[in-house]
Every structure is written in C-alpha cells, then in structure tokens.
Amino acid sequence: MTARRRTPAWRARVAARVAELRPVVLALMRESAPDELRGFGQATGRQLQALARLPRDGMTMGELAAFLKVTGAAVSVLAERLVAQGLAVRHPDPGDRRVVRLAPTPEGMAVAERYRDNQRRAVAVLLDRLSDDQVAAWLDIMETLAASEPAPRAAAAEPAGAAR
Length: 164
Known about the structure:
Low-confidence stretches: 154-164
CATH class of one domain: Mainly Alpha
Helix content: 55-70%
Radius of gyration: 20 Å
CATH superfamily of one domain: Winged helix-like DNA-binding domain superfamily/Winged helix DNA-binding domain
Order of helices and strands: HHEHHEEHHH
Mean pLDDT: 85
Structural class: mainly alpha
Strand content: 5-15%
Oligomer: single chain
C-alpha cells in the first residue's frame, strides 16, 4: 500500500488545526498534574527545566542557553536566580577558566529529580487517554521532531507549499 500524497492545502489545514489544538493540549498537560509546581519553592517552570537538564558536573552557560533556546543574558539571569535559591552553583570550567559552568547543588539535584518525577506522572496521566497505538505514534512523532534541525525562521513562517 502506497502512502497517499497530501496537497499543500491539506497541510495548511492540518497546520491550522494543530495550532488551534495546541493550547488545549498544553492546558490538558498542565491540568494532568495540578500540584506539579508545588513544593519547588520560588523556582519557576523555566528554572526547573534548566535544573532538570543540568548534569552533576554542570554545563556551560552557552550550552544551557542553547538547550533552553534563550539568549546568554536570559540564561545568566536564570542562573543567578538558581544560585540565589541555593539550587545551583557557578564554577569555572576545568579546561578553560574563562568559561563558567552551572552545576546543581545536592538540594538542586533533589528538586530536579522531584520535578522530573512530576513531569513523568503528568505525561502518564495524559497518555492514559490514548490507545497503545496512539501512544506509539505520538512517541515516534516527538522523537522525529526532537531529532530534526529547526527550520530557518523565514521558512518556518511560510505556509506549507509556499514558493521559495
């Protein structure tokens, strides 16, 4: 059986529908664990994402900025707030003392693990609404998107099938 070729108009309709459904699905994800961010002190969701990403030996500010898709200035503010809360420490990179690394403190590692556990529970509750085939398809889609290179901003703004 060969896959049916979809038209640019079909892709445009799908993109519009996905854009329409995105906030609904995101709200469902947030609602699936209503206490998700309780017990994390003053740490914001973005700070918790960063903390959960930090390996024990830390990462450079540039690596963290790239992961979060924010500027160096924004990650510097985020890092300062994590440090002020006692969740992370800054230290020079052993290979290049000009480079600053951000590493979790023992308290930060514990908070990050609780955050990851809450995230897993929230996703599990959401996935419980789907069949096994749908879950497998969602995982396949998520892995494909995560592994792909981001589209250039100008191209991403073009409707599917637009002239280039």
